[in-house]
Amino acid sequence: MDQNNINEPAPIDEVVFLKDQLSEMELNWKRALADYKNLVDRSNKERRQFTEFANEVLVMKFLSVYDSLDMLGKYNPDQGLQLTIKQFGQVLKEEGLKEIDALGKDYDVNEMEAIELIEGEKDKVIEVITKGFYLKEKLLRPTRVKVGKGN
Questions:
Q1: At 41, is the secondary structure helix, strand, or coil?
Q2: Helix (H/G/I), strand (E/B), else coil: 35
Q3: pTM for the full model?
Q4: Calpha distance 138→47 (Å, rounded)
Q5: What SS3 string covers 52-110?
Q6: What would the mean pLDDT of 93-119 be, rounded to a whole number?
Q7: How far apart are CA 5 and CA 106, in angstroms?
Q8: pLDDT tens for residues 50-95?
Q9: Closest Cα to residue 101, out of 129, 65, 143, 136?
């Protein structure tokens, strides 16, 4: 086009070409935006999973200490010790730890580990050896139990 024909309409082929280019650019922009949103979502999910894993490792380390304190609390009625055990248990609970209630219940292979069969009602938990726990919805440690073998 020369300077004198500025208001002259562009040839139809050029208009179609420009519309195609515009459509392609718009499609690429939408694709890039969707990729970016997916990246943000994936990064957030990975960060959350990492935090949960780190918490799980830390809680597992604290469980052995909690077990020791709990066992000591059974033999030592000191009120200070009992309060400390209760506070420690509350902190673990606030982090998502939930004790598995097993004593007197039916044996459940999904959350319990049978250590021994003893006299008692068949397939009922007669004694809890080591408490089991869930961390949020994940089984952290199965309950170790003695199960009744029946009469």
A1: helix
A2: helix
A3: 0.66
A4: 18
A5: HHHHHHHHHHHHHHHHHHHHHHHHCCCHHHHHHHHHHHHHHHHCCEEECCCCCCECCCC
A6: 94
A7: 92
A8: 887 878 888 999 999 999 999 999 999 999 999 999 999 999 999 8
A9: 143
For the chain, what is the mean pLDDT? Answer: 90
Give the class (CATH, top level) of 97-151: mainly beta
Closest CA to 124 of 136, 112, 133, 135: 112
Give the whole-angstrom CA distance, residue 108 versus residue 144.
11
Q: Give the C-alpha separation, 111 to 140, whole Å.
A: 9
Chain position carrying tokens 């420690």: 88
- C-alpha dihedral sign at 136, 59, 140, 130: negative
Interatomic CA distance for residues 32 and 38, integer angstroms: 10
